[in-house]
Amino acid sequence: MLAKLFSPKEIIDQNTQRWILDTFAWAIENFDINVLKNDARLILPTNDFYPGTVSSIDEMAQAMFVKTKNYAGMQKWPIELVSSAPTSVTTINDLALGTSLRGEQAEVSLSPESSPLMLGFTPQQVNQPQDFIAAITQALAGILVTSNKVLPPGGQEYLPQAIDLVACFMGFGVIFANTAYQFRGGCGTCNNASLNRQAALTEPETLYALALFCVLKKQPMKSIKGHLKSHLRKDFASAYKSIEQSLSSSTQPALLAMVS
After folding, report:
1. Three-state SS for 249?
2. 31-42, pLDDT tens digit by residue?
3. What angle is formed at CA 53 by the lines to CA 52 and CA 59, rounded to 5 degrees?
4. Segments forming the whole domain that contains residue 228
5. pLDDT, tens only, 102-137
6. CA distance 200 to 206
7. Which stretches within the chain are classed as H helix?
8. Is 7 contained in some domain?
9. Are the C-beta atoms of residues 83 and 121 closer than 8 Å to each other?
C-alpha cells in the first residue's frame, strides 16, 4: 500500500510504456549506441543551440537545417534543404549504408551519378522556428528509420510512432513535446496550423520518451522543465520519476548498457 501511495503518477498506460521502452532499446541496437552515449545532447530551443545572425529567411533555414542535421548525428548523410519543390529523384533505396549510421564515423554514400536527397520548405515555416526544427528532425528521423532493415516493435504499422520516438532518441524530445499539439483556435496571427508537423505520438507519450532519454543520459530533471510549455512540466516530472524507478528493475539489455 505504501509503495502505491508514494509511486509517481503514470501518464501513459503500461502497454504504451513497454512499447516506448522496447522501441528505445531497438533504436539503441540499430542506431549507434556510442553516438547516444558520447555525442547525443538534449537539444533545447535556445540561442545556445541555434546561435548566429542571418540576413535572409533562406540563410536562417539553412543554418537551422545544418545544426539540426549535426545534432541528429546525420551530418554524413547526403541530404539537402531546398526552398522549392524538391527535384531530386534519388530515393532512400539509392543509399549505400555501412555498419555505422550516425556520427562522424557514419558510412553513408551515393553513387557518383545520384544527387542528394532533398527536403523542401516554405519561407513561412521559418517564422515558427521550433515547429520548423521539429519538422526537419521528423524528416531526418523518417529517413533513418525507413532505411533500417529491422522494423521497430509493432512492425510497419508503428513506423510513424517509431519515427517520432527516434527524434526523441536523437535528443529533440523537448522540441517534440512542445510541438506535439498546437492550439487551433484563437487569433489568426498567433499560430499557423498549416505549418505544424503531424505528430504520431501524443504529448504524454512524447514526454515519456523525453524523460527516458534524460534519465539514460543522466540529465537532471530541473534543467529541463523550464524549457517545456508550462502545462507539460508536471507530467514530465511524473514520467521522469516513474522511469527512474522502472529502470532499476529493467531486464532490457540495451537499456542496461546505457545505465551501467
Report:
1. coil
2. 999 999 999 999
3. 100
4. 13-259
5. 999 999 999 888 899 999 888 888 888 999 999 999
6. 9
7. 2-5, 14-30, 33-38, 57-71, 129-147, 159-167, 173-178, 203-216, 222-225, 233-247, 253-259
8. no
9. yes
Tell me the C-alpha distance between 43 and 141, whole Å.
15
- Note whether 110 and 96 are within 8 A (CB): yes
Q: What's the domain count of the chain?
A: 1
Structural domain includes residue 35: yes
Establish if 8 belongs to a structural domain.
no
**What is the rounded CA–CA span in Å between residue 181 and residue 177?**
8
Residue 1 lies in a domain: no
Give the C-alpha separation, 153 to 145, whole Å.
12
Q: For cell 523550464, what's the residue?
A: 226
* pLDDT value of position 223: 93
What is the number of H-type helices and E-type strands within the chain? 11, 4
The rounded distance, in Å, linking the Cα atoms of 126 and 133 is 9
Grid cell in block for residue 140: 531526418
Cell of 125: 515555416
Strand partners, 108: 97
Cell, residue 32: 549507434
Q: How far, CA to CA in Å, does 77 sit from each of 56, 63, 230? A: 25, 16, 36
Mark residue 9 as left, alpha or beta (left: phi above 0; alpha: psi -120 to 50; beta: remaining).
beta
The pLDDT of 200-212, averaged and rounded, is 97
Q: Are 197 and 163 in contact (CB under 8 A)?
A: no
Terminal Cα-to-Cα distance of the chain (whole angstroms): 31
